[in-house]
Amino acid sequence: MRRIVIILVLSWASAFSLRGQGTVTFALEKEGGDPVKALSVPLDGGRIATVAVVGTDPGKAASEAGEELKLVGHDPVTRLTILQLPNSGAKAAPRGSALGLLVGDAVYLPKQKRASRVVRWENTFRGKVLPVALIRIHHPADKPPLPGTPLMNAEGEVVAICHEAVPKFGNGTFALPVEVVDRMEYDLRTSGRVTPCWIGVTVNAASAVLSVQMVRLKSPGHEAGVRKGDILLSVGPRRVSTYAEARDAFYYMVAGKATSLTLLRGTQRLNLKVIPAVNPAYVIEEE
Q1: pLDDT for 275 beyond 90
Q2: Which of 22, 175, 183, 281 could bond to 160 as cystine, CB 3.0-4.6 Å?
């Protein structure tokens, strides 16, 4: 059964590659350097998701055939970029979830029979908390995959997207959970742009216990019933016990869509619903 599943994964990846729509070339923000190549994941409506690494211009992208690609949306936090192909009847790649990926789990690159392996989830880098947790993946190939390369589970579903190489730790890459695509697509559907959201709740970064330090008056968190001193246990489907985990979980909240919060208040376990709003710093004032 495992061999059959892997063959199906490779067949999908090969068919996508043969259509010549998988490779994207990004121009650099500054003139004088060579363009940077990336692979991509097909989405609905002839769109693709890829990664425009730091230093590249997400608005200056071309297909493998040299056609200019229209920028649909770009997330400066993750560098995830969604582009529109000029003519494409390609089907969207099936998407799974990265939430269940554990250390040692197998994921598969297109056209690779040997498994890549999850090494760990990374929520800090060089001593700084990342806004979004990345997945460190080690690969069997001689060279690390290009940014934007899809990583699939045994069922052929895309669960992560390669971001950048990690040369100091074997043949590895950091990868974005596929949920980043889901979050970005929701924003583009509802507001036409990527908008960080906000619930007006601050957690204590220095404390060993993930307690609420402040709740802003009349904020979404205040309206939902969150109080100072509450201990945060989970945000949506993500369990949290550290500031880094909470920051990652907050990233996936989207404006206008109810999110569940699990809290501990004394010995009482509470389940609240909060409706995030667009971060006030990103609100566009109507004329």
Answers
A1: yes
A2: 175
